[in-house]
Every structure is written in structure tokens, then in C-alpha cells.
Amino acid sequence: MEEQFNFSKKYSNYLLAGMAVALLICIGAILVSKPGASRIWANVLLNNQLFMGIALGAAFFIAVHRIAMSGWHTYLQRLPDAITTFLPFAFVLMLLLYFGMHNIYHWTDNSAHDAVIEGKKAWLNIPFFFVRMVFYFTGWIALTWLMNKNTIAIMGSTDIKYDNKRRIFAGLFLVFFGITVSTSSWDWIMSLDAHWYSTMFGWYVFIGMFVTALTFIILLVWFLRRAGYLKYLSADHIHDLAILLFCFSVFWTYLWFCQYLLIWYGHLPEETSYYIERLKSFKVIFFLNVALNFIIPFFGLITVESKRNLGWVAAVAAIVFIGHWIDYWLMIMPAATGDKAGIGFLEIFMTLFYAGMFIFIVFRSLAKGPIVVVNDPLLEESLNYES
Amino acid sequence: MNERKYISVYFDDEKYLIQAVKKLNESNETILDAQTPFPVHGLDGLLSMKRSRIPVGGFILGFVGAFLAFIFQAWVFTVSYPLIIGGKPFFSVPTFVPITFEVTVLFAGVSMVFALLIRSNLKPEYRFEPLNDRITDDMFVVLIDSTGEKTTIEKIKSTLSGIQTIEIR
Questions:
Q1: ipTM above 0.85, yes or no
Q2: How far is A300 from chain B (nearest CA, A)?
Q3: Would the pLDDT of B48 be above 90?
Q4: A contacts of B97 (beta carbons < 8 Å)
């Protein structure tokens, strides 16, 4: 039962070397192909959003399960907990956007005299943008930190009060997150197309976050299992993770289609511009997005046997992860960079660099305590769980 | 008592039921059925029951529903009664998607319900006679095939000696 993840020198050296190589290729790509400042900053935004989304989705996962007093996840609860510790780093990375605001957010340009953007000045201005950013991250970081702190307290104590406390923080987090996830997605992604708006956008981004977090949790479980940890992991735990991935992929498709259908039917020029821009130049990527995020998980995970096979579930999760990268790419790139958008060495290796950094931080947090929280009151239920 | 083809064992807790089923499997008895007031976790696997094929039927019928709904709408809006709605083309796939989805769910759901009713023989005149009224409330029963020569009440009693049972008969 006492399992301790050993973040060995070997792993950390591999990760650091991989990060260094990826960073060098990024710099090389910038120097060789001269993609322009807007494309570089749009890449920074994309990766910030992707990996912050994983951390927030993991926090949502853990908060929902705690507040529902779910038993099955308690065996795996340290994994999402470790993922949420990326949030402070995401905060710093997001603050970097201050230097690239003018390159990607067209509403920061005051000289254009655009009546629509003038009307949105009260919300879309640089000082308030960063005030809101600080506000969101303060809430997210504080509440996830308090949840994690009580989990660590449970490791050393059998007092039930810590379990009750973190459940209260989970509830507070869900309320705060429910509102701020929408407003933050308006700020960081929807305002790239400052003229365009969609009332479904906050939900759409939120479900994308949750699905990417699920794929990352599944891949982390797969890795730990391969490395010889998680000895008591049963097919039932994998089954439940796969069910969540399956059903929230379907829900993502539902929101994707609702947003598309309403805009297509309404046929208002200020709304359709979003889809025209993307369908005109990036038709293949546009439909690849649906194929990877709906068709693959739907048919890949529809039978019971496929949901209970960890290797297969991890393979589907990896494909869905790539699918959501493409989803963010479609949301951000055409709006921020216009015709210069593309998928090249810069995009791929900057994501790999971020992924290395993300995994490094997650592993470091995971190694700080035992993988299994032995004193958790619901652990017994999780170990004898049947889905 | 000679016509009886089974021996019934009664329990008042699911954990004794599970223990007994495991013991009986070890001594190679044939378990005909188990009747419980609620679904007991892990019992299906122990009774070596075949996996239900109802989901397969649901998938196929859902597919049929999707196909029929799509074809029907395409026919209505292009051949039978073409109408201009919102300036869209007659054959526009996005408008067909919600109804195709709904009919898929309807076909899959209803077909699974009827498949269950037909396979379990649940017709209107069906009457269930429980071995004991308490198995619809708080009692569990396992039925063991006793047509074989070797299976006797004494043998079952000795097999289940360590487990708390209410009655073996």
C-alpha cells in the first residue's frame, strides 16, 4: 500500500534534456522561418491555455468527486492533486502575455476607431484584463492549495476534520470555477475575435479543459502502471476513467455542434465570420478536429472490453489529447495570426517544451508524498470498487 | 420431495451469499440461479453467466434508426416537399443532425427495453412465484441443481458448514 513515486535522476534528466532540445528547435524555427511576433505569442497563449486547462480540469475532477463523496477515485486522487500544482506556474506564464498583448489581441489597438470595440471598452482594456487575470488565478491557486494542504494533512492524521474541510474547499472551488472559467475563456480566447461572440463559448472551452485533463490523468495512470506503481489498480478504475472520457467527448461534440448549428442557422454576419475564417483556409483541420475528438473516442471506447483495457484507453486518450490541441489551435491561431497561421516546427516543439515542463512539475509534486492516501476514509471503498 | 430438482439455500446477508457461491463453485456444484432483492456486486461473474447481448442489439437498432431518420429527412426535404427555410439549401446536413440523433436514441432505447421483455419472457400474464416472500425484501437464495446422484442436502450442508445460512432445504 505504501507506494512512493521516485522521481529519479534518470527521469528528470530525460525531461530536462527533452525540454532543452525542444526549446532549441523552437528558437531555430523562429530564426529560420521568421514566423512573426504574432505567431510566436499565439503559440505561447495556446500552450498556456492548454496546460492551464489540464490543471484546472484536474482540479474540477477532484472537486466534483470530493463534493459528491465519491469512493472510486480515492485510490487515484493524488494524481489530479499533483496536476493542479501547475497552476502557479501557469499564472506566471499567463502574465508573460503582457509583453505580447498588441501582437495577438487586436482590441488593444486604440488607433483603429472601431465602433464595436469602443463599445466593449469597459470590459476589454489592458489594466482590467490583468486585474481579472490576477483575480482568477488567486482564487484557483488558493482553493486548490487549500484542498491539497488538507489532503497532505490526512496523510499524517486520522482526524475526519481534514476530510470535511477539503470538501468545503471543493464546493467553494466549484462555485468560483463555474463563473471564472467562462469569463476567463472570454478574456483569453474569445476576445481574439473581438467582434465575434458566442454564448456557448465558456461551456465549450470548459469541456475541452475537462476532457484534456481526463486524457492526461489516463496517460499518467498508464505511465505509473508501466513503471510498476499503482499495484491495486483494477480494471474497474480504468473503466470509470474511460466512461468519463467517452461521455465527455460526446458532450464536447454536443456543444461543438450546438454552437455551429445556431450560428449556421442564424446566419448573422458578425457571428458567421468565425466559422467562415476557419472553414475557408483550414477545412481539413476543422473536420479533423471533430474526427479526433468525437469519432475516435466514440467508436474506440464504445464496448466494455475496450474501456477496461488500460493500453487501449491510453492510446485513445493520446489521440484525444492531440485532438484537443487542434481544437485550441483552431480557436486561437486563425484569429490571432490570420493568414500566417500554420502547424510547423514552432507549434509542435513549443508544445513539447511545455509538456516537458508540465510533466516535470507534476512528477515533482507527486514525488513529495506517497501515491496512495492511506488514511482517506473512502479508500477501502475504492480498493474494493466494482464499476 | 422426489420431484424437486434443486436444493435451496437461504441467507440474510449478501456477503454470506458470495462466500457460499464461491465455496459451491469450488466443489463443482451446478448453481441454477440466485434470487436477490437487489443487484449484488460480483455475483454475475461468480455465477459464470453469459454477458448480455442487449447492448449489441441496441447499437444495431440505433444505427438503423440513424439511417432511417437521415434518409427520411433527406427524402422529405428534397423530393417530397421541398421548402425554403432560412435561405438554406434543400439538402443541408446540419439541420438533419438533431432529429437523426433523437431517432437514434429512441430506436436504441426502445429496442433494448423490448429485447429485455422478450428475452426474459415478461408478457402480461407472467406471474412470478417467489420461493419465499422475503427474497423481495431482505433475503437471498441460491438454487443448486440436485438432479445429479452426488448432490445431497447433507453434502451441501457440510460444504457450507462455515457460512451463516438461514435454511438449507
A1: no
A2: 14
A3: no
A4: 257, 261
